Amino acid sequence: VDHTPTRFRRGQGEQVSLPPVSTGTPVGETVAQVVFSSLMQKPFVSIGPLQICRHKPLWKRIVSKTVDYQNNTRMDTASSEPAITAFSVPPFTPREVHERLGDVLNENTMGTVYSLEGYPSLAVQEILLDGLDKGDLDAIKTRLTVILTLSHPGVLKHHQVVEDEGLIYVVTDRQDKTLERLLAEHKRRKIFVPIAVILSVMKQVAAALAYLHGLSGVGANGLVHCDLRPANVLISADGERFIVADFGLCRNTLWSESTIAGMAVYMAPEVLLHNEASPASDVWSLGAILYELTTLRRLDFLKGKEPAEVFVDGWKPNLSGITDGFIKSILERIFVLEPERRLTARELHDTLTAADIPVGELGAQYAMLRYECGSLKAALNNAKARIATLEAALDARSAEMVSQSTETASLKDALENQGKEHLAMIKALENRFTQSNSEMNRADSQINLSALPRLIRAAHTNDMETVQMLANKRNYIGQRDEQEMTALMHAAQQGHVGPVELLVRKERGLKDKSGWTALIHATHNNHPEVVKIIAPHEHGKRNKNGRTALMIAAQKGYAKVVSVLAPYEEDLTDRYNKTALILAAEARHEDVVEVLDPTDDRGVTALMRAVGRGDMATAKALVALQRGRVAHGETALMQAVTYDNINGIKLLLPHESGMHDRYGATALMKAAYKGYLEAVKLLIKKESGMKDNYNRTALMEAATRNHLEIVIMLIEYEACMRDSSGETALMKAASNGHLEVVELLIEYEAGKNDDSGETALIKAALGGYPKVVELLFESEGYLIDKSDKSFFGKLEAKGYFEIVSFLRDSSRTSSTDDYSYS
């Protein structure tokens, strides 16, 4: 055992030599076997000065050491006391098995389990082979061959397989109790399973599954259980160990429609939908067991529907029945549709054993870790937001420089064109003076934008007759000037409705040098009537800067043009992920904002909607325009609290803190009411100590709804305050039976009466909460008038006889005078 050559003295002078043990020696199969076979040959043996006999205490210690060493080469089990492996189970013949079959211990999908007479530590599983084809039979035998080699304290030990005329008998270790029976006992007594037991079950079964899934030479996924249910988890006699049993040997026959009905609650979606079992499906089954242990209710995601109707893209589990945050977080990582994203058994085991934390401290540890994680996330989000803002500013500056460069080039081109036009006009005038009257018409034609193609010139000057004449001639359509502008673009730029109507179907969709369409030209020059004509044909197209016509109109503040374009382009974003609404808000065009996202008749603004849907980019742009407004008595900050939008709260806190809704409630009160811890942390400095129209505080809201962590945070700010009825937070917690909150508030608010003369103790008694009554009695028992027939009559009428008896028979340990003096 100590990895050194060992000699044991047996009897009078006899010695047994054991081989030296190295770290590579399978200790459980050498030292333990030799010691056992040697020690058990005679009634008494001597090992140095220590005398032992056959009742096995020393043997258990020896095997414990060897099995511990052996398991350390794999993965330690969840139990602190490893299983005692039976090293000498005799081989049984079919006849011996029949003769020794005892009582029925259990019946399951694999068959019947019997006791084995003469061997109280063994059991026999009988498997009926009738109806199985050769393929199923071969699969069972192959799986049993693998199962016989398994050696793990969390996996039921299988010693021998005996085949006899259509039956298979499997000799295993015996465990008389199952997890199913444990659950049934708790359900019958309506007592929840202790958290320590739940975590022990999960830890041990996860360890067993990790061992099975990690087996080599079995398959790519190791050995998959296929049938993990409470009935297949055995419990040792001392209730400390949980052993996985009853592997799904006969999947093809067991998983008939009638059988699936009872097993479906433990089956993963991929098993129900495609009959595809994997290590991930075993973990799903373990999650279903965890849910049942925690709630005493079977999981029912299907609710009578077909799996294909329920398990669709975007499916999320409803875990509202789980109140323990640690367990809920585990289930959220198990109940995911994609098997590859699910927790593995090893990851689950590591999660439960990462730190040796007492069970009673897990909740506090989890809360602290969650708080720290939330703080880190908030800091990271702030940093990301700051980086994004700086990047956006840099991009905007770059875009502005590009835009200025483009405009400069356009101005240069325009000046060049104007120069050419002026030269042409001068030349035309000179010709007019030198030519005769008969040539006047020709000269006149040269002075009207003579450098432009004829159709373009006509469109530019709104010459409808010429446009009508040339629009049907194919060789004129699509002609461009030096800026690659078409006749339609010129007409749109000038706001000429007639030419636009004639040309829009013939030249739609074309772009000039800058990537501008006719629609963008009309928008840029604020011609809403022309925009209305072209929009159905060219909406959605962008210029070289990635901007649409609507974005240009929104940034320039052209509200009428925006109203025309919004139905076509309002959801599009530019290269910086900005919508037209964001651009309008950044440019402070409030009338355009109202066109794009109008304030409704209830007063709900675009800012409130953006905060509600978590669109922080839009909210940041809108906050300067729409902060401080009230809709249905609520502000945008209150909306952010309602949706637990932490970034929204941070954005709006400097602008809207301290405001009240129509009932006088603040954002802090709403956060306390809903139990949003991070929101309370942000709001507490700005809004603590405030009261609503009924003088209620945030502490009272948290105490009423049993939000313990929030109560802890608010005590120093709002303890001892009273509402309009004279009630304190302690009274509200006592009225609702919140024991832990009452315990926190006693030292601050005990001994007070409300306007009707009732104390927290009286309210707890009238509410029927005996434990709260007992807790408060030490502080407020002296205020109870034991002769008050009305009070005790009310309690008796409600059937609270236990409370009546306690209040009448109990007396405080400290004197009334002490409290009176206080």
Which characteristics define this entry?
disordered N terminus; 12 strands; alpha+beta; three-stranded antiparallel sheet; Transferase(Phosphotransferase), domain 1; 822 residues; 40 helices; Serine Threonine Protein Phosphatase 5, Tetratricopeptide repeat
Structure description:
The strands form 4 sheets. Strands 5-6-7-9-8 form a 5-stranded antiparallel β-sheet. A 3-stranded antiparallel β-sheet has the order 10-11-12. The model is unreliable at 1-87, 430-448 and 813-822 (pLDDT under 50). The chain contains 40 helices and 12 strands. Helices cover 53% and strands 7% of the residues. A hairpin with a 2-residue loop joins β3 and β4. The radius of gyration is 41 Å and the shape is flat. The chain has 822 residues and is an alpha+beta fold. The chain has 5 domains: 6-72, no CATH class; 94-354, Transferase(Phosphotransferase) domain 1 (Transferase(Phosphotransferase), domain 1); 452-538, Ankyrin repeat-containing domain (Serine Threonine Protein Phosphatase 5, Tetratricopeptide repeat, Alpha Horseshoe), CATH 1.25.40; 569-747, Ankyrin repeat-containing domain (Serine Threonine Protein Phosphatase 5, Tetratricopeptide repeat, Alpha Horseshoe), CATH 1.25.40.20; 748-822, no CATH class.
